[in-house]
Amino acid sequence: MDVNTLFWVNAIVMLVMAFGFLAAWARRRGEACWPAWIAANLVLASALVLYIFVPRIAPDWAVLPNALLVLGFGLRWRAARLFSASPTTWIAVWAPASFAALLFAPPLSLGAGTVFAAINLILATQAGVIAGQFWRAREPGSLSSYGLAAAYAIMAASFVSRVIEGLAFLDSFTTYLPLDGTLPSHLVVAVIHTSASGVFALSIAYERTTVQMRDERDSAQKRAQNYSRLAQRDDLTGLMNRRAIESRFSELVADGFCAMAVLDLDHFKRVNDRHGHALGDAALCATARALAPDDDCLAVRMGGEEFVLLLRGAHARERAESRRQAIPRRIAADVPGLHGIVTASMGLMELPRGLTGIAFSDLYSATDRLLYEAKNGGRNRLVSEKLSLFHEPPRRAGTVAA
Fold first, then answer.
1. In the chain, where does the domain assigned CATH 1.20.1070 lie?
2. Keyword Transmembrane, does the record have it (predicted)?
């Protein structure tokens, strides 16, 4: 393949990769590396096309493709820094290109071989610095990160070989753009570098997008779980609310929660009226702690000063009563300054094991009736019943007063 064809191949690959970077930028607008990469490829493609025509049409304009080539790698350095979320400066982009242009200035009267070696030394340094940047910023587990660093390291090595060639044959150079025997090999390396670096960069961008989408999905799921948890919790006490328990009631009954207790703090309006809602809220929180929910006892705040317990296992009535009697002690310990003891009344209904099909609202209404019996009986007491599977009057388990 002749040299001009290789220049065209490099230029076309540059343009194709520029469109790939444009597509990546369309999906990731917040990343400034993509415009820099697009600009770098367009500048480099322009330099490669000029390398084809300048020697034949205007040899004195050799400064233009050389300066553009250095500028393109300067823009790639900027893209690499932005791609790695590292700080960057325009001085590092324009200073090498300006120095490359200065090498062609007539006052310096530098020989073609010296300029050739100097230009390739600048390019080797730029490619090496970019390779080092990608190596330092490589992402664990990403082969593309290593491939990107390797692509620039190979290009840097090729430029170094051109520097050595320029120094070895310094006096034999008659043009700034020598069409020597090693140029085709250098251009083949350039094609490999351009293709590999572009593909690896786009691959890393895809990997980042995949990770970002996964993180966003996980974050959304976590938020949804938190919202669901918050929607099923009472803001003040942290206990479950009615929505949480009612939606799972059939499942809970099937799982053995066969006793419901409804309790209400006695004369609680007096607490709020006398001490204010702040101390009243503190008393409600203390009540929630006294109810001591565990694996076999679920506590629910129904609203205001009313709570519900769902219990399973043996001695449900005794365990519910123990919690009811713990309420005055807990409030007295946790909320100093209250005048008098805050007691609680409770109604409790025990279901026979294996009963299914009962609705939460029906059991709640029946248990709430027992609560009102406890209040009408003088408060600060428990009234309970056991429901039978047979159609006979329920057997009253008894009334307990503190």
1. 3-222
2. yes
CB 128 within 8 A of CB 149: no
CATH 3.20.20.70 for domain 242-401: no
Which residues partner with 294 through β-bridges?
A: 297
- Indicate the fold that domain 3-222 takes in CATH: Rhopdopsin 7-helix transmembrane proteins (1.20.1070)
What pairs with residue 300 in β-bridges? 240, 308
Strand order across the beta sheet in which 344-350 lies: 297-303, 306-312, 257-265, 344-350, 381-386, 395-401
* Contact by Cβ (8 Å): 304, 242: no
Q: Answer left, alpha or beta for residue 140, where phi above 0 means left and psi between -120 and 50 means alpha.
A: beta
Give the separation between CA 355 and CA 387, rounded to whole angstroms: 10
- CB-based contact 262:364 (threshold 8 Å): yes
CA-nearest of 262, 143, 197 to 33 is: 197
Per the CB < 8 A criterion, the answer to whether 325 and 402 are in contact is yes
pLDDT at position 389 over 70: no
Report the greatest alpha carbon distance in the chain. Answer: 119
Global pTM reads 0.57
Average pLDDT for 327-348: 93
Which of 146-150, 233-237, 345-349, 385-389 comes out lowest in average pLDDT? 385-389
Q: What are phi and psi of 263, to 5 degrees?
A: -130, 155
Q: What percent of the chain has pLDDT over 90?
A: 58
Q: Report residue 230's pLDDT band, with 50, 70 and 90 as the boundaries.
A: very low
